[in-house]
Amino acid sequence: MSRSCSILGAPIQTGASQPGCLMGPASLRTAGLGQVLAELGWRVSDLGDLAISAQEPMAHANHAVHDLAETRAWIEVLEGAAYDAAAAHDLPIFMGGDHSMAAGTVSGVSRYAADQGRPLFVLWLDAHPDLHTLSTTESGNLHGTPVAYFIGQSDCEAYPPLSHPVDPRNITMMGIRSVDGAEAARIRETGIDVHDMRSIDETGVLPPLRAFLSRVRAANGMLHVSFDVDFLDPDIAPAVGTTVPGGATFREAHLIMEELCDSGLVTSLDLVELNPFLDERGRTAKLMCDLTASLFGRRVLDRMTRSY
């Protein structure tokens, strides 16, 4: 019996520093994401793209913050849509769009997990911890705030009320290599499990990932994976506006996705920060589709030679 998945676009770019992320969902569709998943035996529902209406500006004491009203509206829309998608499908995929969308997707699937009486765990694959609050962000780019919001930190009151915060002890971050001072302090305060690129260089990706998956399994948890393009090294994934050298390699990323597939624990997925305007002949979109395919069951021997 085939399992069901859905793909839902969130063409949001108001949380980022430069335009282009709103084309992310279209780029993933053009790269054949839905077709790839169907070929792997999944029943795929394309739920289209979400949208928000025009918003009245919202002021904040931190004058660097921009597009606050739009980000709040996106969180509201995404929370409900993520909840519905999690209820209707075995493994919904949320295609972005900048990473501020995770404030909505994670809060939505967290509410659904609570309804099932199960804890939500989050695997955060990103160069950045995105643990700023609205007051600590110096850039004002709100894609740096979703984790602080969905773990229930104060100073996010301008966002929608949060019904089911994620326990910080249920979060593992991998690939981190760009952390501001305020975020470093918050990591220490909350106890979030962080494996930066030095740690990965020392141990490889499997020991921390398997330890995390063991905790998810022991707790009968649901697992949300939030995959930011800048988790990857920009040499293989240039289509992102926040490139940080020294990211995950092609082989490390596929190994992570294959291990997640083998675990059978993943219940929802974000694909975020894909900016096709910065891509080279669609190579990053194709790579994200290939990585998603590994999560959904494609094995090494199934891969075709790729030409760019």
What helical percentage do the residues reach? 25-40%
Quick one: how many beta strands?
A: 8
Q: Helix-strand pattern, N to C? A: EHHEHEHEHEHEHHEHEH
Structural class: alpha/beta
Give me the Rg, rounded. 18 Å
Please report which band the strand proportion falls in: under 5%, 5-15%, 15-25%, 25-35%, 35-45% or over 45%: 15-25%
CATH topology: Arginase, Chain A
Number of domains: 1
Q: Under the CATH scheme, which class?
A: Alpha Beta
* Name given to the CATH homologous superfamily: Ureohydrolase domain
Overall outline:
globular
- Amino-to-carboxy terminus distance: 36 Å
Could you please describe the fold and organization of this structure?
This protein has 308 residues and is of the alpha/beta class. It has a single domain (4-302), classed as Ureohydrolase domain (Arginase, Chain A, 3-Layer(aba) Sandwich), CATH 3.40.800.10. It has helices spanning 24-30, 33-39, 68-88, 102-115, 146-150, 181-190, 197-203, 206-218, 250-263, 283-295; strands at residues 4-10, 43-49, 91-96, 120-125, 171-176, 193-196, 222-228, 266-272. Strands 2-1-3-8-7-4-5-6 form an eight-stranded parallel sheet, with helices on both faces. Helix 5 (146-150) links the parallel strand 4 and strand 5 (171-176). Helix 8 packs parallel to helix 9. The longest helix is centred in the N-terminal third of the chain and has 21 residues, at 68-88. The radius of gyration is 18 Å and the shape is globular. The model has no long low-confidence stretch (mean pLDDT 94).
